[in-house]
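Narrative of activities, Objective 1.

The group set out to show that a structural description can be obtained from nothing but a protein's sequence at a throughput compatible with the screening campaign. Below is one input-output pair from the validation batch, recorded exactly as produced.
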Amino acid sequence: MPELLHSAAEVTSPSNLSASSSAHSVAPNTACLEKYIQDIHYQDSYEINTRIFDHGLCHTTPILKSGRCNRILIYPGSFNPPHHGHLELLRHAFQNCGKDMCIVAAIVFPLDDDGLKSKFKNKKDTKIFTKKERVNLWKDKVASDWYWVYDRSVREFSTFRRQIVEQTAKDGFKVEFVGLFGPDYVSIKGAPIGKWPCEKIMVSDISRPADFFGPGMATPKRIEGFKDWKKVDFDIGRLSAKARDDAAMVFVRLSFISSGMLESMREEGTLSEKMDELAEELLQEYVDECTGIWICVSETDPRYTIRFIPAKVSVKPVSSTLIREIIDESPGSELVKALEGLALNNDYLVGYIEGATKDGPKNMEIS
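Output recorded for this entry:
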């Protein structure tokens, strides 16, 4: 255990996680994903040191490791506008998809303006927020420590994705993108396999009901083009290693907050015991998590799979359509209150609606 703690300490050292570090590697066989994103997305621009992820005291920016497949969730959508249901779906998938997936980070991808105009071409009165506005509505006051919002076009993302995979591979890391969709895209009628360059996709009913699963159902209904659902297989050895690593990381973070407490456990000879106890608790949590997950495989190509992460408790139903209706029906003075708990970044959203923001144009209408 002490060796494990030492390894984790190297990974989480503030100096190693500095965005301005001249090297990608932060410890043997590990690297910060952030540095690759900065180098590829911003290249030689003055923004190259822009923070991609939050570097808070108790946060660890996404770390790549060799010897495994490091997966990044890509969450595309209209997000017109984004709401708490979108965020809960992303958070639920990221946190509960199973530690066997080795998801290290997520990228939110608001679709291009042209795509939204096409989607709503038969709904002339639909209010459309520009991509810049939708990106800003997703962003919080500070960067997230696990997801990032992509602000460029679909065409540019294709190049970005390829370069991330290629550049990390040169340094000995395997990176794969996994698609995340809601039940409005994954249903008994099919799934968007092949629409995005992801062989694996995920779905959950956390923020809206799924037509293939519901109360009283022991097994999800079959998805057209896919075989029957099965419970996910997992490698207990890998989960055990993950639990040990995560337990060590907890104590590393504790050392930043209260080095005296950690030193006291060392002197008492209880540090390894405490870490082992935590690792056992985490392992049980990870096993329980995996046993609740379903997976189905394409009938024609076994590379393509859907992973379903059922929600134990669903969040309050909300949709972008509902928010747009509230915007249309609520007087300006009541808008902030009406949108409370529904839309992300209400202050930004109301500012865009009123045309009062300085960092983006007024929301555009379909012509």
